[in-house]
Amino acid sequence: RGLPLKENDAVAGVLADFAANIEAIRIVGYQCARMCDRHDLYGPLWDPGLVAKMRAQRYLAMDRFIEVTGRVMNLMECFGADRDWDVEKHWRDLKILQLVEGSKQLCQIETARWFYECTTL
Fold first, then answer.
1. Does position 101 have pLDDT exceeding 80, yes or no?
2. Residue 62: which of 31, 103, 110 has the closest Cα?
3. Is the pTM of this model over 0.70?
4. C-alpha count within 13 angstroms, C-beta hemisphere, residue 82
């Protein structure tokens, strides 16, 4: 009918999910930055507990951002994968970052090792 996507009732819930995911990751990211900055409260920067929390935040954020970007591409249908729009580029960049920073499984193992005091991982 000539309305922007954001004005469509069917899309409002999807957009709310996007905003909630992004805002939650932003808050967790700020908390992690605070933990890195306040050595007097949270210990030294390379403390195993702090590293485990940073790894948990990293793989959680990366998963959420890739999920949101993929859903945006699906929402835009054929325009989502079109190189004329930036969505495909952002999704591709996130996938490359995911590979460069290490796999999700590595971060999960490192996180589980500290949180559950695993000796065999």
1. no
2. 103
3. yes
4. 8
Count other Cβ atoms within 10 Å, centred on residue 97: 13
pLDDT at 6: 81
- Of the chain, the end-to-end C-alpha distance in Å amounts to 56
Rounded to the nearest angstrom, the gap between the alpha carbon of residue 50 and the centroid of all alpha carbons in its chain is 18
The string of DSSP codes covering 57-110 is: HHHHHHHHHHHHHHHHHHHTGGGTT-TTSSHHHHHHHHHHHHHHT--HHHHHHH
Contact in structure between 89 and 83 (CB atoms under 8 Å): yes
Query: Are the beta carbons of 32 and 67 closer than 8 angstroms?
Result: no
Q: What is the dihedral of CA 21, 11, 72, 20, to 10 degrees?
A: -10
- What integer best gives the mean pLDDT of the chain? 86
CA angle 55, 75, 96 (to 5 degrees): 35
CATH class of the domain comprising 5-115: mainly alpha
Backbone angles phi and psi of 34, in degrees to 5: -65, -40
